[in-house]
Inverse folding.
């Protein structure tokens, strides 16, 4: 069994050669790379999935407010409001879950860096939103959904194989981006962090929708293409603005990528080539917009004011 791959094409060839489905391959590969048994991989996977669930609950139970004043409980506000333009439950849950997890990160709480702390809300936000909207006690869906959404309950391991599979597929997508380009904002800008997470989440959701792997990676390509060139310009050097709200925006990006895929609209540029383009763009970005807080939003008058003192002005 070959566990090394640098492109989606190589990953697909390894899967074919080993006659394995992608989630089995991901676990065998992890066991091989870490030198541990497969059941230990599943235990660790479940432990981390549980952390993602706990962090989204924490972020929705009460407004998360950071010492800097940049994080102000946007997740709770968004989840509880009855004023909504878009009523779709999956859409709003994905955004509120992503906000919740990333606000917990901004306030020093426990999250899973998946793939990074700054983008930690996107993949689990998407997967758990799909899970809560498509399975569980709400299925079959009752007549009009209660609005606003209640805080979801904790779900304990062992987790459903399909749910595990979604996290594993997202992980392999991240491995491909890391190997072909980078997942670090300091190297490739936010296209790498939040853009990479959006691609991972889109791939996972297409998997949950039972699309073939080639289509899952087309969804990943669509999502990543729409994040190319995204600057990393965190205000005051803190992972809060634009990071927290960007987690919500990128979930919507990923949902659109999956919806296009389900409609049979695929990426003209293959996933591997999009990753190469991301690397080329990242390499040509100025250092000021690669996590140095020396450009973009960080240098706006308001952004600069947060360098000196915490602030509680303004909106959520
Ligand atoms: S703006 Fe920078 S720090 Fe914030 S999530 Fe994006 S890459 Fe991370």
């Amino acid at each position: 069994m070959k566990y090394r791959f640098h492109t989606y094409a190589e990953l697909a060839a390894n899967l074919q050669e080993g006659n394995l489905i992608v989630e089995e391959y991901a676990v065998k590969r992890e066991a091989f790379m870490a030198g541990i048994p497969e059941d230990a991989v599943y235990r660790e996977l479940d432990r981390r999935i549980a952390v993602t669930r706990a962090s989204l609950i924490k972020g929705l139970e009460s407004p998360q407010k950071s010492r800097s004043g940049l994080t102000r409980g946007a997740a709770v506000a968004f989840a509880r409001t009855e004023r909504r333009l878009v009523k779709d439950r999956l859409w709003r849950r994905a955004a509120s879950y992503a906000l919740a997890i990333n606000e917990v990160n901004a306030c020093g709480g426990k999250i899973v860096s998946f793939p990074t702390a700054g983008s930690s809300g996107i993949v689990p936000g998407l997967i758990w939103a799909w899970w809560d909207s498509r399975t569980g006690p709400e299925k079959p869906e009752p007549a009009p959904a209660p609005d606003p959404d209640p805080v979801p309950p904790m779900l304990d391991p062992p987790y459903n194989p399909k749910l595990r599979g979604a996290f594993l597929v997202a992980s392999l997508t991240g491995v491909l981006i890391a190997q072909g380009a980078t997942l670090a904002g300091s190297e490739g800008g936010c296209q790498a962090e939040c853009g990479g997470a959006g691609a991972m989440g889109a791939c996972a959701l297409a998997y949950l929708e039972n699309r073939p792997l080639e289509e899952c990676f087309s969804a990943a390509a669509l999502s990543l293409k729409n994040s190319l060139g995204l600057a990393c310009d965190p205000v005051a050097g803190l992972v809060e603005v634009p990071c927290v709200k960007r987690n919500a925006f990128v979930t919507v990006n990923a949902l659109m990528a999956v919806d296009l895929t389900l409609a049979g609209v695929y990426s003209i540029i293959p996933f591997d080539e999009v990753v190469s383009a991301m690397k080329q763009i990242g390499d040509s970005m100025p250092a000021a917009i690669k996590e140095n807080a020396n450009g973009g939003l960080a240098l706006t008058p308001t952004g600069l004011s947060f360098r000196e003192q915490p602030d509680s002005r303004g909106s959520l």
Summary: Residues 38-61 form the longest helix (24 residues). Residues 21-307 form one domain. The chain has one domain: 21-307.
